């Protein structure tokens, strides 16, 4: 049986710190710091093999998930070099790291985790999913900018002592009110510039949504996205976000594992007879978690068990089993919401609980567990 050399890589934009560890002895074979170049990694691996005395030794490399995304993984895979991306939250880290931390020690720690198998690897989606994921995240960035410009407009008008008399903001009546305000020329110019930016961002986001609708019609996405849309609160954009960001639902053995991946399960700090539940872990994919929270906000509205025209339209043409499953899920979650609110549970906690269970129902649709 060939020995294995584990190469830990602490990667940054311009430099990589490398550390090679032998599985046979646990000794450090080589350490170095190089410029960000996969050719130099390949040379380092050959040198580590020579130092181990076994030129045919297997090599396993790894780096923490971070700024490089999957790019280095693909570069090394193209060279036939085995590579894994380590989830930082799952790695074992020495207590000394809190007082003494540098790139060399980080590379050593990554190599040690590889050798001890004390980590969980990040799932690497295929290239098509990555392209779609990046498009969705780009749209998310523009949504964040739109939210910020809304806040800036509201703050500007409040500083002028102007308050909108209606209830709902950013509807045609609210926009008409702002455009009709009589202000001093300088203030009017400022507000017009803000509104111009608001209109520009709104138009671009609508264009992005249209493009995403086209992507959702691809064969690889269409069936599951349309099934997810049977759930109240899930539209095409949120269905695509959840489906693409997760990529492969079969890697989760059960619904609880998926909700944990979304970071929606509560943390725990218990000892002896004391059981202390904390806030949610917020580990895993933040995009999915945010989307589920937003979907839960919509799902709990309305009368329990009553479907609106929009939901009926989305369910048209779908499998009866999927529709029944989605309706039962929504009714259960709405009842749970009202029950927890009646018990005076904080609404944010309630919405998070609804989002956590919604993730479980989504896992059921994606994996076919709808009986």
Mean pLDDT: 92
- Cα radius of gyration in angstroms: 26 Å
- SSE string, helices as H and strands as E: EEEHEHEHHHHHHHEEHHHH
Distance between the termini: 47 Å
Helix and strand composition category:
alpha/beta
What is the approximate shape?
A: globular
The assigned CATH architecture of the largest domain is 2-Layer Sandwich
**Number of structural domains:** 3
The proportion of residues forming helix, as a percent range, comes to: 40-55%
CATH superfamily of the largest domain: ATPase, nucleotide binding domain
Assembly type of the shown chains? single chain
Q: Major beta sheet, specifics? A: 5 strands, mixed
Record the strand order, biggest sheet.
3-2-1-4-5
Task: Let me know the number of strands.
Answer: 7
Number of helices: 13
Strand content: 5-15%
Protein name: Transposase
Keywords: Coiled coil
GO molecular function, one term: transposase activity
Domain Transposase IS116/IS110/IS902 C-terminal: 227-301
Molecular structure report:
Pfam families: DEDD_Tnp_IS110 (PF01548), Transposase_20 (PF02371). The protein is an alpha/beta fold and 371 residues long. It has helices spanning 38-52, 71-78, 103-116, 127-159, 172-179, 185-216, 219-228, 236-246, 255-261, 286-299, 309-315, 320-342, 347-367; strands at 4-11, 15-22, 28-35, 58-64, 82-86, 266-268, 277-280. A five-stranded mixed beta sheet has the order 3-2-1-4-5. A two-stranded antiparallel ribbon has the order 6-7. Helix 7 (219-228) packs across helix 8 (236-246), helix 8 packs antiparallel against helix 10 (286-299) and helix 10 (286-299) packs across helix 13. It is globular. The relative contact order is 0.08. The mean pLDDT is 92.
